Every structure is written in C-alpha cells, then in structure tokens.
Amino acid sequence: MAENGKPDFHYGGQAVIEGVMMRGRSHFAVACRRADGTITVTSEPVDKGVLGKLKWLNVPFLRGTFALVDTLVLGMKSLMWSANIALEDEASRSKPADKQPVSTPNQSQNKHVNDATLSITFFVAIAFAVALFVYAPAFLTKFIAGRVTESRLWLGIIEGAIKLIFLLGYVSVISLMPDVRRVFQYHGAEHKVINALESGVPLDVENVQNYTTVHVRCGTSFLLVVILVGIFVFAAVPWNFSGPLWKAMLMRAAYKLPLLIPVAGIAYEVIKFAGNRKDSPFMRMLLAPGLLMQRITTKKPTDEMVEVAIASLNAVRSAESEG
C-alpha cells in the first residue's frame, strides 16, 4: 500500500451470481450473498496460468491475449463457485439455518458443478460469441456492403459497426432480465469498491456508494477497444475468397484467428495505459465510448450488494497479507 492510502497494485474483478469476485496480485476471492442474508466467502491463490508459467510471453503487445485467457478461466471458475452456492440455497430453501454475518463453505464438500460442466459451459459460451460477433457480422458485411465497395478498410469499418450494434443490442436486451440486471448491479458494486480503494478512502458502504459505477479498466471498455483495433488490423485480411459466401467467410475467419493475438495485445496495452492515467482528460475522451456503454452493463447497487463487494475485496487483501 502506498503512503497516500492508495494501492500499489491494480485490483480487478467481476460480478458473479449474487456476488463479486476480486483478484489481487497472488490471490482471488469470491463473496456471495446467500438466501438467508449471510455472506459466504472463499479465497485461494491464483493459478500461475500461461503468463506465470511462460515468463517470456509477459511482454507488451503479446501478454494481452494470454492475460485474457487466464482471466476467462478464472472468471468461469468464480462463476461456477457462485452457481454452486445458488444451487445449495435452492436445495435448502425450506431448511432452517443459523444466521452468521460471514461464513466460509466447507472446502471438502462435493462440487455441484464439476470440471466437465465448467468446460462445456465455457466452450458453448465461446461458440455462441464467435457465431454472433464474428461470423454473423462478416456474413452481413459481405452480403450487403460487399456489393457496394471492395475497400478492405471500408468493409472493416462497416463490419465493426455491425459488431458494435450487435453488442449493444445483445447487452441491452439481456439487461431487461431481472437476474441479469442483478448481476449488472453487482458489477456496479465491484466498480464502486475499486474506485473507492483507488481513491484511498476507508471501505465502508457509505463511502463506497459515493463513487461511480464505471471504471476505465472494465472489460466492457476492452471489448470496444478490441472492435476498434480490429477494424484496422483485420483490413489486412482479404474478402474476395473464392467459392460460396459461407465458405468464403469461413476462410476469412480462419485467416483472422492468428491476428487476434495482436488485436487483443494492442487493446490490452491501451486499457492498461489508460488505467494508469485515468484522470487524464485525453484518456477519458479516448475511452468515453466504453465508459458510456458501462451505463448499460453496470447498474446502481444496493447497500447489501456493496457489502458483498467490500467483503470480497477485504478477503483477497487479507489472504495476500497472510501470504
């Protein structure tokens, strides 16, 4: 911790089912609000992941892709843990339970959501995202705009615009679902707590609620930067593959896959750079679209949700201080 009370490390996290995951330098913690009103917390060391095992990959413009993979794996692990808690509450809803302010689940208990379920869920989610945000925009761009222009740059701009429309539409629609809206509220609680921590104020509900639900290092901003960077990087990939339209678009997608490494790498460095200079007017202007989109992906949390986010952050900081 720096002398001004602000952390010397950028903590991050994500919303899970009725809770928040917070990640530190060496540990992560997940806190969830249970059906009986208590908060249950778990914390453990972060797996080394790709970057931890292969140090030579941890260099600018290369580390972004592998950091993203590690983040996705940790995020799914945290989400499955929270799903287990929700399933336990659903199964024991009619059973009486002693109320405690914070509890820790028995580490020896059987997993309700096993590794196979985790893997299937992960790959289904990835497949859906690729179909909706990669193949569908490419098909539409080639089918509609391909008849008007052959400019790779213009086709890339049109494809990027379609991706953005799809992303905004998808997020806006799912935000109408009550369960998803609660996740977005916990997302807002996570951001509020991180903003309060980085401002150096004591972490209590009253202080935290004074802060905004948007944050420059949010994954929402990262997605938008990926789309913008992709417009220019993917301009190197031709559109005029021979054969039927579906085959041509599959070929183009195959050519684009290796380019995801520099796209994610550049986007990661932009977000990292902006996160270190978040008070800069220029940086805030540059990331303004991502901050605006967070008005959809984050919602104002209740005091109870903020308590959960604080519990998660306190747990990971405590775990790291204990080594």
Broad structural category:
alpha+beta
- Helical percent range? 55-70%
- Count of helical segments? 12
Radius of gyration: 21 Å
First-to-last CA distance: 15 Å
* Total E-strand runs: 5
| Uncertain regions spanning at least 5 consecutive residues | none
Strand and helix layout:
Blueprint: E1 12-16, E2 19-23, E3 27-33, E4 39-45, H1 49-53, H2 63-91, E5 102-103, H3 115-144, H4 152-174, H5 178-199, H6 205-208, H7 219-233, H8 245-256, H9 260-276, H10 281-286, H11 288-297, H12 303-321
Parallel strand pairs: 4-5
Antiparallel strand pairs: 1-2, 2-3, 3-4
Helix pairs in contact: 2-9, 3-4, 3-8, 4-7, 5-12, 7-9, 7-11
Q: Can you offer a commentary on this structure?
A:
- With 323 residues, the chain is α+β, with helices and mostly antiparallel strands.
- It has one domain.
- It is 59% helix and 8% strand.
- The chain is built from 12 helices and 5 strands.
- It has helices at residues 49-53, 63-91, 115-144, 152-174, 178-199, 205-208, 219-233, 245-256, 260-276, 281-286, 288-297, 303-321; strands spanning 12-16, 19-23, 27-33, 39-45, 102-103.
- Strands 1-2-3-4-5 form a 5-stranded mixed beta sheet.
- Strand 1 (12-16) and strand 2 (19-23) form a beta hairpin.
- Helix 2 (63-91) packs across helix 9 (260-276), helix 4 (152-174) runs antiparallel to helix 7 and helix 7 (219-233) packs across helix 9 (260-276).
- It is globular.
- The mean pLDDT is 86.
Give the gist of this structure:
By secondary structure, the protein is α+β, with helices and mostly antiparallel strands. The protein has helices spanning 49-53, 63-91, 115-144, 152-174, 178-199, 205-208, 219-233, 245-256, 260-276, 281-286, 288-297, 303-321; strands at residues 12-16, 19-23, 27-33, 39-45, 102-103.
